[in-house]
Amino acid sequence: MIVVLAGGVGAARFLQGVVQVVPQEEITVIANTGDDREFYGLYVSPDVDIVMYTLAGLVNEAQGWGILDDTYHTMQQLTSYGHEDWFALGDRDLATHIHRTQFLHQGKTLSEITDDLRTRLGLHLRILPMSDQPVQTHIQTPVGLLHFEEYFAKRHCSDPVQGVQFIGADTAKPAPGVLDAIKQAEAILIAPSNPIVSIGSILAVHGIHDALHEASGMVVAVSPLVGGAPIKGPADKLMSGLHMEVSAVGVARHYRDFLDVMVIDQQDSHLLSAIEDLGIPAIATDTIMRDAPTKAALARTVLEAAGLDRFKQSVAQ
C-alpha cells in the first residue's frame, strides 16, 4: 500500500500521476481538513473535494477546484439576499456539501461520508480525512486571527503572516485507519502541497508525526517550491512569515524529523548539497506537472526514490 499525504490542487495533480502508475486499490490518501468550515450552513471540505473531483475527472482544471462547467445560480440568488460571495460554490458543487452536511446531521462521521462520496464518484482508492474531529487552520495577522479560507480566498493573502494556529489539533485524534495506513505502508509520499497549512495541519494531529517518524516504509516528499516560489498558493508568504527559508531546503528542514528522501525540481539542483547536509538524500527532477505524462513520470521518480521499482510501468487505465 502507498500512502499519500495530500493538500489540495498540487496534491490532486500529483495523484493524477500516481494513479497512472499504482492501482487505485493500493493507494490511501490522508487528506487535509484544516481548511474545512461552514459556508451558508453547509459543511465544506475543500481539499477532500479537490482530490475527489480531480481524480473523478470532474474538476475545473483551469482553476484547480470546483466542477467543470458548473453554474452559479444559487450563489447569485444568495448574493441578492445580501450574503457574501467570496467563497463561490457552484450549483453541482453544492450538492456535495448538502449531501455531506445532511449525513453529518444524521450522526455519520466525516470519514464515513468521505468514503461514501468517493465510492459514488467511482474512485477505488481510499481517501481518509486526517481527523473526524474539527481542526481549523488559522493565520495570525495584524488584523487578527483569520480562518485560512478567509486569509486565502477572501483577503487574497494580503495580510502579513505572524503565526499559524491549528485550533482543535491538541484534542483531535487521527481518523480511523490513518495510523494503521502509515504503519503498514510500503511508502509514504508527501505531495507537493503547502508544508505549513496543508501538510502542517495533518502533522499537527496528535500521533501522525510520530507515526511517520516510526514508519517502516520510506517517507519521500516533493517540494512544492520551484525556484523559491510555489506553483500555486501562498506557501512562500507563510514560510517567510514564520521566518523559514523559502526554498526546497526550508521544506526539507521542516520535514527532517521523519523524511527519508527529498525530491526537488531540476531548477533547484544547486540546493541538493544543502539538503544532503541536513542528512536527507535528495533528487532533482522535473516536478512541474504540465500534463499526464509529466505527472506519471514524477510519480515514478518518487516511487523509485522510495525504493519501489515495481511501478516502472503504467497501470491499465
What do you see in this structure?
The chain is of the alpha/beta class and 317 residues long. Helix content is 37%, strand content 18%. It has 13 helices and 14 strands. The strands form four sheets. The chain has a seven-stranded parallel beta sheet with strand order 5-2-1-9-10-13-14, with helices on both faces. α1 (9-21) packs across α13 and α7 (178-184) runs parallel beside α9. The longest helix has 15 residues, at 91-105. The chain is globular and about 55 Å long. The model has no long low-confidence stretch (mean pLDDT 96).
Strands ordered across the widest β-sheet: 5-2-1-9-10-13-14
- Counting helices, strands and paired strands, the structural category is alpha/beta
N-to-C SSE series?
Answer: EHEEEHHHHEEEHEHEHHEEEHHEHEH
Instruction: Estimate the mean pLDDT confidence.
Output: 96
Helix content: 25-40%
Please report the distance between the alpha carbons of the first and last residues: 19 Å
Radius of gyration: 19 Å
* Main beta sheet strand tally, sense and closure: 7 strands, parallel
Alpha plus pi helix count: 13
Q: Categorize the overall geometry.
A: globular
Low-pLDDT segments: none
Beta-strand portion reads 15-25%
Number of distinct beta strands: 14
Q: What's the assembly state of these chains? A: single chain
